[in-house]
Amino acid sequence: MAVVGIDLGTTNSVVATVRGGQVVVVPTSQGGYLHPSVVSFSPDGLRYFSVDAVARRILDPKNTVYSAKRLIGLPFRSDEVQKALVRLPYELREGNNEQAVFIGPDRTYTIPEVSGLLLGYLRQCAEMFLSDAVSAAVITVPATFNDSQRRATVDAGRIAGVDVLRVLNEPTAAALAYGLGQNMSQRIAVYDFGGGTFDITILRVENDVFEVLATGGDTFLGGDDLDSSLLNILAELFNAEHGIDPRNDQAARSRLLIAAEQVKRHLSDFPEARGDLKNIAVGSSGEPLALRFHIARSVFETAIRGLVGRTIQACQDVLASAQLLPSQIDEVIMVGGTTRVPMVRAEVERYFGRPPRTDLNPDEVVAWGAAIQAENLANAGESLPSRAVLLDVTPRALGIAVTGGFAERIIDRNVPVPVEQTRIFSTSSNGQTSVRIQVCQGESRRFEENVPLGELELTGLQPARRGDVSIEVTFKVDTNGILRVRARDGATGAAREAAVNVRGAMSESEVAEAAERQKYEEPSDLPEIPEA
Amino acid sequence: MAGMSTEQLAAFVRQIFPRLDQLSYYDLLGVPSGSDQATVRTAFYRLAGDLHPDRYHTLADHDLKEQLEMIYSRVCEGYRVLTTPEKRAAYERALNQGKKRLTATDRESHAPQNPEDSLRHPEAKKFFRMGMICLGRKDWKGAIMNFNFARTFEPTATLIAQKLAEAQAALGKPGGAGGTPHKTP
Known about the structure:
- In chain A, about 30% of the residues lie in helices and about 30% in strands.
- By secondary structure, chain A is an alpha+beta fold.
- The longest helix of chain A is centred in the middle third of the chain and has 25 residues, at about 295-320.
- Chain A is globular.
- The mean pLDDT of chain A is about 90.
- Chain B is mostly helical.
- Chain B folds into two domains: about 5-105, DnaJ domain (Helix Hairpins), CATH 1.10.287; about 115-170.
- Helix content of chain B is about 60%, strand content about 0%.
- Chains A and B meet through helix 11, strand 19 and strand 22 of A and helix 3 and helix 4 of B.
């Protein structure tokens, strides 16, 4: 039995494991190490995954899901999903419990189900490569992922039949992979500019203890946005030449977006990019329209300056919350493919006043750390030699709604996990026999300015005058960053526990059903390995 | 950080868990009161090496695991409070009132909402406030008297009953919270 670390990315995923004390990365069927996070459901009932599904983003955009990480664990009506909706060519609608569900050719799929299918595929890749069953995994998530996003990621793992040992923050995983802080104390900034998200995390590392001091970022800023900037440049060029805006045509847009991604990569290594894109769109008389282009790196840099500036602003905010200056950072680690963009490196170096570390592959470093941690957890037992301890913190403050439209904070931002805090509240009207506890995340004093996470109801209170009934609300965040809420009737002392109904999440039975279905749909297709 | 065996962990939990609410953050972290941030951190890192949930991820005993996690959560809380100057100052005040744990109400004592805001009778509020002042001075008898007065005006208020019980408990303990509020192991 093997355990693996999985960096389940917005754009690409990486799977790694530790064998004989060495980290090995599971290759794709085409020999690379990045498994595109794409699942395609063809109308004839077949499914395509990852490298085999990428081309289908153009051939069958309506049935090909990518960037599922942008949607996982978020309610359909959330800003993030609504924003993503505009860009995504496949269809989503609101399903049970405010979830965003994908409308597939045969039926609808919840987002954890789609991610679960991808995870199941990644697991099989690992099993074939390792010639061993993979039972458990550490899955990484952005440090800024909230409770429901983490929960949904665990659900995806369960649907794939993978025991999720731990949901690990990506920056912590990266720091672990670099193995810094041996025999000394260092402050490290992990600058993680991935396909879909930007994270900045400050850690203190000392003798195998990795303590997150502060974390922040932008869940809606990544390499995809750089691609969009280039897409706009290409679209404008196309428009100038043919008088047609290819962004209005879903297929043309998809083609240009793929070209934009390639141009971006090229511009990381060369000062200019030239090309000839055939069959972008169709003209008025049915003739295929092409685009010949020449883009200088400086043009691209002008277009993305604002986006890169937002990452530096986020660095400033996080350093301020850790009460540190850029000069107090001993090492800056670069994570995520977008850190290959020369301008990104230059701006980071300028801000921190030191060249960032790029010696480990920025695409693989998170999976490396996840693999190391998976190995640590699977072997957690008696009297093992010293190993890394990862001390993570809560990404956002957590609280509940109180009268007057306010939010009362129960757990602060950036506190070490696990954490448990109880606060006592009272009823707001006479004879009240139940309370509705609305849970939110965010730092605002006003409830509506925070992000609602879910709610629970505590019933059967003894009727009394307002204010005389005390309700103890306990928030518990575990090492995975997952919140559990307990409400207790303080008067009777009887513990009445209620589960939070998390907005946009699958129910227990839905997850179990999906897991069962996936099991059924993929009947023991593991190749049998003859004994050595 | 050699790591503890299951037997050592179980013995540790048996020793600490039942007394968790009686231990100050200093006791839990095993540092003298007044220790500087670096000392607190070193102690915390050492403890995290033994007690972090990842260390006993494979432990089969669910109850033991749960209790360990509660202890470790409290250790984290102590680390956080003792290394944040404002929180630490609030904690020192709470310790002087005989509390071992900084709760949200202590932390936000400067917040617009006063504890007596939940009381409705003006006389009850007045005596409750005086009772709280006595409590702060460790004048347990004065506190009991004032809380009793407050209760005659608003007998159903749980807040008064709680504070009264607190004062009575402090008085009942010879040399209790009034003597040395925190001792170091």
